Amino acid sequence: MITTILAAGAPAAAEANPYGLGAALREGGLISQSVFTILVLMSIVSFYILFSKLFEQQKIMNQAKRVRQSFWQSNNLREGSAKLEKNSAYKQLVDDGLAAQDQHSRLTDPIEAHDWLHGSLARSEASINSKLGGGLAFLATTGATAPFIGLFGTVIGIYRALIKIGSSGQASIDAVAGPVGEALIMTALGLVVAVPAVLAYNWLQRRNKAIAEDLSAFSTDVLGFLASNGAVRPSAATAAALNKGAPARPAPAATTTGIGGSAGTAGGTVATGTAGGSTTAGAAGGVPKSNA
């Protein structure tokens, strides 16, 4: 009984609302259906790239925090590298720098050590940035082309609707507005796909820029450490190391000052000038002398 009622009500609902996405796809034919499929796939891939890149970027940002906390407190780069994660981007920079330092002594063509180390670290840094930028080109392409793909579907839908209206001989407002209006759904769908892709592209690019700046600063610190045999460290790490092992500072010595004379410290001499002469006083245990 219930099945019969639902089956009877379904055609009535379809007849009551003959316009919509499903009707637009049916009226548009293979071209509209292909456009719809392409836009849906572009949207799915865009959101996959967004979330995967966010996860990758956050992982590197967390690695940067650990590097700032403990890496430069190590005695040397090999010890600091052992503290980092196995697949860390910062560990890759350190290992490539150490490998370049070992390879420099085996070069047959003389090259400045600084230039060789700088080139190796720059190559490693560029490799990391290239991995971070993977997939962003697809987001840019989606943001630039999705509205036009949707517009293409709209044009085809309007064309088919007008052909159908012309063949039927009906030019009333209900016969024109419905098919043309449902064809505009493709343009709206194109915008729905494009706008999130553009926002995701700009946001990920900004985060990549911040990560690249941190990697560049860390690469410069590693280069300075290698080029100076460990004498040059980041200022924050140097201050922390000095504060950690700095001895207590002695209290300042007491001084005595006379009018018109000079001051000495305890255990020394004090000379005090007076009107018409001078008086020299020795330290404790000394003999004062006076001149008339």
Instruction: Report the portion of residues in β strands.
Output: 5-15%
Helix share of residues? over 70%
Number of helices: 9
Q: Give the spatial strand order of the biggest sheet.
A: 3-4-5
Please trace the helix and strand order, writing H or E for each element.
HHHHHHHHHEEEEE
Mean of pLDDT? 76
Overall shape: rod-shaped
What does this structure look like?
The chain has 292 residues and is mainly alpha-helical. It has a domain at 39-240. The chain has helices spanning 2-16, 21-70, 77-83, 89-104, 113-132, 136-168, 173-183, 185-227, 235-245, and strands at residues 255-256, 264-265, 270-274, 277-281, 289-290. The strands form 2 sheets. Strands 3-4-5 form a 3-stranded antiparallel beta sheet, with no helix packed on it. It has a two-stranded antiparallel sheet with strand order 1-2. It is rod-shaped and about 90 Å long. The termini are far apart. The model is unreliable at 1-7 and 245-292 (pLDDT under 50).
Question: How would you summarize this macromolecular structure in one to three sentences?
Answer:
With 292 residues, the protein is mainly alpha-helical.
Question: What is the secondary structure topology, with strand pairs?
Answer:
Elements: H1 2-16, H2 21-70, H3 77-83, H4 89-104, H5 113-132, H6 136-168, H7 173-183, H8 185-227, H9 235-245, E1 255-256, E2 264-265, E3 270-274, E4 277-281, E5 289-290
Antiparallel strand pairs: 1-2, 3-4, 4-5
